[in-house]
C-alpha cells in the first residue's frame, strides 16, 4: 500500500539520457513564459483585472478584446494574464510548503525507522485515506476561504503524500556508507537528514515538486470552481470559469480562455516533470490520486 | 372600512379563477378520462434555490423556495396577493372588519374538500392559525402575525371565521397572505405534515422525501375550481446551478424553470423552443450598513455612499435591464403607498464633499460582504466597488460561503449585501427597518419612523395612511443605512409548448393549476 | 488496522465538523431563525449536549449497527445514503467498465507503435485530457454534445430514466468525463511499463522462438505490465471516490459526493460521518484488492 503512492520505483533497463529531453525543454519553456507573464503582465495587460465595462458584457473575440468580455464587461484576456500571478503564487507557495514540510517528515522518518516512523506513517496513511477534496471542503468551510487559507489547506493535504515519497526515496539511500560515516562523526539526526540524505534525493524531490505543482493548479482550480477558492473579483482561473459558466451556451470565450491557460500550464509542468524524472532515471513516477 | 373593500374590488381585475373556469369548461371533461401513466401529462419543473435535506412541506416551517413551490401545489390560503400586493380571495370568499380595524370576519368558500374527502370548514382555519401561533410550533412566521390573539380565533359557523387583533391592522387580509398561513386539515397527525400534508390544493402529494432529488405530485380530481388543474402530475426538483438549469430547459429535460439569472436569459431568448416569462417584482437587492457603527454612523457618509451609485448602470449590468431602478426606498414605485420621487443621480463631487465634511477628506476604507446565495450579489458588490472607488470609498470585497451567509454574515457584519422578497409597503418597511424588528439589518433606529408606521397601521383613512407611509419612506431614503438601487424582475422560462404559466411577484406564491402542456 | 483507521478518520472528521461555524439548527432555520425556535430545535436534535458526548453516543450506536438519524432530513442515515451510494456505484461502475479496456487498448497501441504517428497522436490527446480539470471536460462535453448537437441530455437526472437505454443516455456524459480523466494516467502508465517489458530479455526470447506478435503481447508482455496498471487503477478508484464530487456537481448527479457537499453545508454530522466512513472504507478496500491482485499476477511474488 505504501509503495503505490511512490509510483512503485523500478530499476530502469534503459540508461538515463544526458540532458533534458526535447519535450522536457518544451515544458520548461512553457513554464518560463508563464513566469514572465506573471512578473510583467501588470505592465502590459490592456485593462485592469477588476476594470468593469471595458466593452459591453459578453462581447465576442475582437482586436480590442482578444478573448472577449465577461458578464460585467471585463476584458477576459487581461484577467487571464493578470490571473497568472495569483495562480502561480498560490500554486508555488502551497507546493513549496507541502514539499518542505512533507519532505522533512519523510526523510526523518525514513532515516529513523523506529517507533516514531511506525506511528507517524500510520497517521499519514490515515490522513491519506480521507478523500482530498472532501477534507479540503470541510477545512475551508470551517476556517474561511481567504487566499492564504486555501494555500495552507492545499499544503496540509499534499504534505502527507509528499512525506511518503520522501520516505521511500530515503530508504534507498539510507544504507549507504556516507550516512554511516556521518553517524560515526557524531552528527545530529537533523544534520544527517539535511546534509547527507537530502542532497542524494534532490532529484526525486524536484520531480515530486513539479508533479505536485501540476496537481495543485488543478486542485485550486476545482476549489475555485466549487466556490471554495479565492474570493471575487480575484482573477483566479477556476473562479472565472465558474462565473462564466451560466452563460456558456451563449459565449464560450470566458470559459475557454482560463481553462486553456490552466491546461497549457499543467501540460508544461507535466512535460518538464517527465523530462526531469527521465533525467534522474525514475521513469513514469506518477501518482494520480492527488488529482 | 366597507369603503376600503369596495375600493379593492373595483381595482381588482376579473378573478383569475373565474376566467380560467370559463375558458377551461369544456376541456375539463376530456381530462377526466382515465389515462395510463405513459399518456399522462407530467409537468417537470425546477426550482433554482437548493433543495435538500432541509426540505419540508409544513407551511409553518417553510423557508426555502422549493418548499414554497411544493406547498403551493398542495395547499391554499384564505387570501392571496394580486400584482400590486393587495389582498384577493382564495379560500375566503369575502371579508370585513369592524370600524376600528381590530376585528376581522372572513366568509369561507363552500363546497371545498380536502384531498381525503373531508369538507373544508371554519374549524380547519381555527386549527391552522392556532397551531401557527403556538410557541411550541416555533414557526418563524409567528412574529410577523403577533397581532392576532390566538385564543380569540373563533368559528362563528361552518363557513365564517372571526379574528380579534391585539392592535388594529388595516392591512390584515394582505398580512395573512404569506407563506406560513396555508390551511391544514385538522386531525392530521403532526408527524405527517412534513412530507404528506393534506390540503385543498390542485395537486396531492405522491412522494416527497427530504433529501431525495425529485418530489412528485398528482392531480386532485376533486379540485374545487372547475377544469383545473390542467396537467396530470407534477415533478419538482431543485437545480441550484444556473448553467445546469439552463442546459436542462434548453434540451427539454425540464418544462419550466424559475429563478433564472440575467446572464442566462439572453441566450434563452434566442431559442425558439423556449418562452421567457418575466414579471415585474418588488423583490429588492440592498447594500446595508450599520447606521450605529463608524464610519457609517455619520449620515453624510451614508449619503455619500448612496451618491456614488450609477443606478442605470447597475440595472443594465447586474440585471441586464430586467428590472427596475430603486431609490434607496424598499417600496417599489408601483406598489400601493409608494413614495414617488426623482431618482438620486450619480454625483461623485457631492459624495466627495459629503465625505470631506464628515471628516474623511482622504476617503474611507470599508469591507463589503457578499455571497453567491442570491443571484446578483456578486455582480452588485463588484460594481459597487468599482463605482465607489471614484469617490475615494475603497471597498474590499469579502465573499462568504453561500450556505451559511444568512446565519453567519447577515446581521453579524456591518456592511453586507442583502435581499428582501417582494412585499407590500407596510411589510417592506417594517420587517427590516422598524427599530423593534428582529431583522433590523441596518441598526437604524428612529422613533419617528416607528411612529409613522404604527400610526399608519391603525389609520382607517386612506389618504392619511398614504401620507404616513410616505413620510416613513422619505425619512428612510434620506437617513437610512440601505443603498437600494435595483428591483430585479422575476425571470422564468418554459418550453414553447407550455402555456398558462404566470409568474407571481410574491416569490413564495406559485400557481401551477393553470399550466398546460401541448 | 483498517478498523483503527476508520475510527481515527471518524474522529478527525467529527473534529473538523465541530470547527465549522454554527450548527444544524441554525442551518435549518436559516434567515428566519428566532432565539426561541433555535433553542427548541437544538433540544430536539440533542445539540445541547457537549461535543465529546455526542461523538461517544454516535460511536456506541454505530457499534450496535446504528448509523443514527440525519439531523436535517429526519430519517435514518443508512436509508438516506443507501440510494446515493447505489447511484454513485452505478456511475463509477460504468466508468470502470469502459476505463479498463480503453486504457489497456490505448496503452498497447502506443507501446507497440512507439515513436510512430499513432503513439504521438494518442499521447498528445491523453496528455491534454490529463491536464484538463474534469469540470472543464464536463462543461465542454455539455456545450458540444448536449447543447450544440443535442445528442445527449446535459444533466444526469437519473430519476427521469425510463428504462435501461434511457439510463445509459442520461449517464453517458458524466461517465465519459470520469473515463477521460482516469484513463489518461492509466494509458501513460500502461505504455511505459509495456515498453519496458517489451524490451526485456524474456520477451525477446519469446520473439526469437517465433511466436506471433499478438501471442507475445497477450501471454507474455501484458500480464507482466499489468501490475503497475493495477496500482494506478487503485489510485484512480480512490480518486474517483472523492473526485466524483466535482463531476456530480457539473451534471447534477444525485450521488454521494453531492450529498456530502450538501451535508457539509447543513452541518448534518451523522450523514457526514457515515459518508466519510463509506469513502474511507472503499479506499482501504480498493488498496487491499489491488495488493492481492498484484501478488496474484506477479509470478515472483506468488
UniProtKB/TrEMBL annotation, chain B:
Its main location: periplasm. Residues 88-435 form the Solute-binding protein family domain. GO terms for molecular function: peptide transmembrane transporter activity. The keyword rRNA processing does not apply. The keyword Transport applies. One of its GO terms (biological process) is peptide transport. It comes from the Bacteria. Belongs to the bacterial solute-binding protein 5 family. This is ABC transporter substrate-binding protein.
Amino acid at each position: 500500500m505504501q509503495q503505490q503512492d511512490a509510483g512503485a520505483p523500478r530499476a530502469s533497463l534503459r540508461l538515463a539520457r544526458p540532458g533534458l529531453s526535447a519535450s522536457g525543454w518544451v515544458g520548461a519553456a512553457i513554464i518560463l513564459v508563464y513566469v514572465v507573464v506573471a512578473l510583467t503582465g501588470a505592465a502590459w495587460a490592456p485593462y485592469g483585472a477588476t476594470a468593469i465595462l471595458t466593452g459591453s458584457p459578453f462581447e465576442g473575440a475582437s482586436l480590442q478584446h482578444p478573448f472577449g468580455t465577461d458578464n460585467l464587461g471585463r476584458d477576459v484576456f487581461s484577467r487571464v494574464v493578470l490571473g497568472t500571478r495569483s495562480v502561480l503564487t498560490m500554486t508555488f507557495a502551497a507546493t513549496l510548503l507541502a514539499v518542505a514540510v512533507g519532505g522533512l517528515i519523510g526523510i526523518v522518518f525514513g532515516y529513523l525507522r523506529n517507533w516514531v516512523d511506525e506511528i507517524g506513517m500510520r497517521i499519514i496513511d490515515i490522513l491519506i485515506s480521507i478523500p482530498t477534496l472532501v477534507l479540503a471542503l470541510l477545512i475551508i468551510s470551517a476556517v474561511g476561504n481567504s487566499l492564504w487559507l486555501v494555500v495552507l489547506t492545499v499544503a496540509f493535504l499534499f504534505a502527507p503524500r509528499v512525506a511518503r515519497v520522501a520516505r521511500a526515496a530515503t530508504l534507498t539511500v539510507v544504507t549507504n556508507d556516507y550516512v554511516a560515516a556521518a553517524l560515526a562523526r557524531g552528527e545530529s539526526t537533523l544534520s544527517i537528514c539535511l546534509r547527507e540524505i537530502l542532497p542524494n534525493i534532490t532529484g526525486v524531490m524536484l520531480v515530486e515538486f513539479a508533479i505536485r505543482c501540476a496537481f495543485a493548479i488543478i486542485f485550486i482550480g476545482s476549489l475555485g470552481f466549487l466556490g471554495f477558492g479565492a474570493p471575487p473579483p480575484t482573477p483566479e482561473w477556476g473562479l472565472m470559469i465558474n462565473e462564466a459558466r451560466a452563460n456558456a451556451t451563449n459565449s464560450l470565450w470566458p470559459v475557454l480562455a482560463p481553462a486553456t491557460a490552466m491546461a497549457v500550464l499543467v501540460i508544461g509542468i507535466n512535460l518538464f516533470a517527465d523530462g526531469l524524472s527521465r533525467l534522474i532515471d525514475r521513469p513514469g513516477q506518477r501518482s494520480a490520486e492527488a488529482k | 372600512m366597507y369603503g376600503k373593500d369596495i375600493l379593492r374590488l373595483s381595482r381588482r381585475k376579473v378573478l383569475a379563477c373565474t376566467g380560467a373556469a370559463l375558458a377551461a369548461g369544456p376541456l375539463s371533461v376530456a381530462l377526466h378520462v382515465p389515462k395510463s401513466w405513459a399518456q399522462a401529462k407530467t409537468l417537470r419543473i425546477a426550482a433554482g434555490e437548493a433543495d435538500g435535506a432541509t426540505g419540508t412541506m409544513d407551511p409553518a416551517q417553510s423557508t426555502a423556495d422549493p418548499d414554497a413551490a411544493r406547498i403551493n401545489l398542495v395547499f391554499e390560503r384564505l387570501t392571496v396577493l394580486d400584482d400590486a400586493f393587495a389582498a384577493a380571495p382564495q379560500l375566503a370568499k369575502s371579508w370585513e372588519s369592524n370600524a376600528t380595524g381590530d376585528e376581522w370576519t372572513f366568509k369561507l368558500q363552500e363546497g371545498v374538500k380536502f384531498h381525503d374527502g373531508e369538507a373544508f370548514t371554519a374549524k380547519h382555519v381555527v386549527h391552522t392559525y392556532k397551531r401557527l401561533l403556538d410557541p411550541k410550533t416555533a414557526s418563524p412566521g409567528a412574529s410577523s402575525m403577533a397581532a392576532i390573539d390566538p385564543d380569540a380565533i373563533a368559528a362563528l359557523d361552518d363557513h365564517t371565521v372571526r379574528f380579534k387583533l391585539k392592535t388594529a391592522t388595516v392591512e390584515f387580509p394582505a398580512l395573512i397572505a404569506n407563506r406560513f398561513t396555508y390551511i391544514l386539515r385538522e386531525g392530521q397527525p403532526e408527524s405527517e405534515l412534513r412530507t404528506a400534508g393534506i390540503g385543498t390544493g390542485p395537486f396531492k402529494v405522491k412522494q416527497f422525501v427530504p433529501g431525495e432529488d425529485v418530489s412528485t405530485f398528482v392531480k386532485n380530481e376533486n379540485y374545487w375550481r372547475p377544469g383545473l388543474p390542467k396537467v396530470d402530475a407534477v415533478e419538482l426538483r431543485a437545480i441550484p446551478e444556473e448553467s445546469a438549469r439552463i442546459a436542462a430547459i434548453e434540451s427539454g429535460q425540464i418544462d419550466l424553470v424559475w429563478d433564472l439569472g440575467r446572464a442566462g436569459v439572453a441566450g434563452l431568448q434566442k431559442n425558439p423552443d423556449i418562452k421567457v416569462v418575466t414579471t415585474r417584482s418588488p423583490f429588492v437587492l440592498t447594500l446595508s450598513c450599520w447606521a450605529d457603527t463608524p464610519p457609517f454612523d455619520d449620515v453624510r457618509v451614508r449619503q455619500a455612499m448612496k451618491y456614488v451609485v450609477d443606478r442605470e448602470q447597475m440595472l443594465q449590468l447586474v440585471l441586464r435591464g430586467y428590472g427596475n431602478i430603486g431609490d434607496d426606498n424598499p417600496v417599489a414605485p408601483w406598489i400601493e403607498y409608494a413614495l414617488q420621487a426623482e431618482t438620486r443621480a450619480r454625483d461623485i463631487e457631492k459624495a466627495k464633499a459629503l465625505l470631506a465634511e464628515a471628516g474623511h477628506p482622504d476617503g474611507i476604507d470599508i469591507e463589503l460582504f457578499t455571497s453567491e446565495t442570491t443571484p446578483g450579489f456578486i455582480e452588485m458588490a463588484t460594481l459597487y466597488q468599482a463605482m465607489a472607488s471614484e469617490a475615494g470609498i475603497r471597498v474590499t470585497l469579502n465573499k462568504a460561503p453561500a450556505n451559511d451567509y444568512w446565519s453567519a454574515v447577515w446581521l453579524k457584519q456591518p456592511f453586507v449585501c442583502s435581499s428582501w422578497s417582494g412585499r407590500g409597503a407596510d411589510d417592506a418597511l417594517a420587517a427590516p427597518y422598524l427599530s423593534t424588528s428582529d431583522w433590523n439589518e441596518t441598526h437604524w433606529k428612529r422613533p419617528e419612523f416607528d411612529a409613522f408606521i404604527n400610526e399608519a397601521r391603525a389609520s382607517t383613512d386612506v389618504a392619511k395612511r398614504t401620507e404616513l407611509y410616505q413620510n416613513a419612506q422619505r425619512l428612510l431614503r434620506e437617513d437610512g443605512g440601505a443603498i437600494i438601487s435595483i428591483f430585479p424582475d422575476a425571470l422564468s422560462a418554459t418550453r414553447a409548448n407550455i402555456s398558462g404559466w404566470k409568474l407571481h411577484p410574491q416569490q413564495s406564491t406559485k400557481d401551477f393549476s393553470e399550466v398546460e402542456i401541448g | 488496522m483498517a478498523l483503527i483507521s476508520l475510527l481515527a478518520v471518524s474522529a478527525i472528521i467529527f473534529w473538523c465538523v465541530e470547527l465549522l461555524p454554527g450548527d444544524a439548527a441554525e442551518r435549518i432555520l436559516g434567515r428566519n431563525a428566532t432565539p426561541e425556535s433555535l433553542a427548541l430545535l437544538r433540544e430536539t436534535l440533542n445539540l445541547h449536549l457537549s461535543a465529546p458526548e455526542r461523538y461517544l453516543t454516535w460511536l456506541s450506536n454505530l457499534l450496535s449497527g446504528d448509523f443514527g438519524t440525519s439531523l436535517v432530513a429526519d430519517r435514518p442515515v443508512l436509508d438516506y445514503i443507501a440510494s446515493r451510494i447505489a447511484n454513485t456505484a452505478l456511475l463509477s461502475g460504468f466508468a470502470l467498465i469502459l476505463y479498463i479496456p480503453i486504457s489497456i487498448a490505448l496503452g498497447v497501441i502506443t507501446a507497440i507503435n512507439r515513436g510512430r504517428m499513432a503513439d504521438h497522436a494518442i499521447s498528445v490527446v491523453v496528455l491534454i485530457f490529463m491536464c484538463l480539470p474534469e469540470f472543464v471536460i464536463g462543461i465542454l462535453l455539455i456545450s458540444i454534445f448536449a447543447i450544440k448537437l443535442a445528442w445527449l441530455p446535459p444533466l444526469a437526472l437519473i430519476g427521469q430514466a425510463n428504462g435501461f437505454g434511457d439510463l445509459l443516455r442520461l449517464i453517458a456524459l458524466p461517465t465519459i468525463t470520469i473515463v477521460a480523466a482516469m484513463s489518461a494516467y492509466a494509458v501513460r502508465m500502461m505504455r511505459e511499463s509495456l515498453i519496458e517489458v517489451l524490451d526485456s530479455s524474456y520477451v525477446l526470447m519469446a520473439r526469437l522462438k517465433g511466436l506471433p506478435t499478438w501471442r507475445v503481447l497477450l501471454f507474455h508482455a501484458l500480464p507482466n505490465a499489468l501490475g503497475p496498471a493495477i496500482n494506478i487503477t487503485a489510485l484512480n478508484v480512490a480518486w474517483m471516490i472523492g473526485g466524483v464530487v466535482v463531476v456530480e456537481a457539473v451534471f447534477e448527479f444525485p450521488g454521494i459526493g453531492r450529498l456530502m457537499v450538501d451535508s457539509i453545508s447543513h452541518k448534518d454530522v451523522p450523514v457526514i460521518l457515515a459518508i466519510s466512513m463509506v469513502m474511507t472504507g472503499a479506499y482501504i478496500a480498493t488498496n487491499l484488492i489491488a495488493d492481492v491482485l498484484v501478488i496474484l499476477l506477479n509470478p515472483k511474488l506468488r
